[in-house]
Amino acid sequence: MFLRSRSQELLVGGRKVLSMLGRRSHDIHKKINEFPLFEALRKSLSIFVSQKLVAKEKVDSFNFPLYTPSTQELEDQLYREGSFTIDSMKQDYHDWMFENAPKMLSKTCRAATESLICHHFGEEIVEPLFQTYSQVLYERFVAGEDIGWCQITIALCKSATR
Questions:
Q1: Which residues are paired to 153 by β-bridges?
Q2: Does Magnesium appear among the keywords (predicted)?
Q3: Which one is predicted more confidently, 161 or 100?
């Protein structure tokens, strides 16, 4: 539906560039941590549960709608939908292994999730949660653990078939 809607915005031969979080692995069942930033958020919420600052049931009912495709899934979906041809597709892995990264990544995650967190848990949790989140990311950084993500950028051309 998204692709069809974007297609309607363009003339044949028109171009569109999309950039999104992606998965490095094509195997959806592969047991690798593709999203250390969201894993750190999960751990931060678990810390709040252990400190009795948030009810476990409240965390268990928190739904963060996130789907991240592999490049193969994107190619398959674009082919099936049929409105676009792929000019280019690039997958990059951003490993944020520099000293100020945990603080910067905490601000990035906060910008992306704050409204969902406020709505589900209340505004009072936001500041302490992201202080904890920064600390969790910092501990991962110091331990040499991954705190990056996969980004897919795809350049599309509207085809004449739709």
A1: 19, 90
A2: yes
A3: 100
- Tell me the residue type at 46: S
Residues 30 and 132: their CA atoms lie apart, in Å, by 29
Query: Is the separation of the CB atoms in 156 and 13 below 8 Å?
Result: no
Q: What angle do CA 73, 29, 106 make, to 5 degrees?
A: 80
Q: What average pLDDT does this structure show over 133-138? A: 90
> Does position 136 have pLDDT exceeding 60, yes or no?
yes
Burial of 54 per CB tally in 10 Å (0-12, 13-18, 19+):
buried
Burial class (CB in 10 A: 0-12, 13-18, 19+), 136: buried
The letter for the amino acid at 99 is E
CATH fit for domain 2-26+33-158, picks 3.40.50.150, 3.40.30.10, 3.40.50.2300, 3.30.70.940? 3.40.50.150
Residue whose C-alpha is closest to residue 147's, from 111, 107, 77, 98 = 98
For residues 25 and 37, what is the distance between their CA atoms, to the nearest angstrom?
17
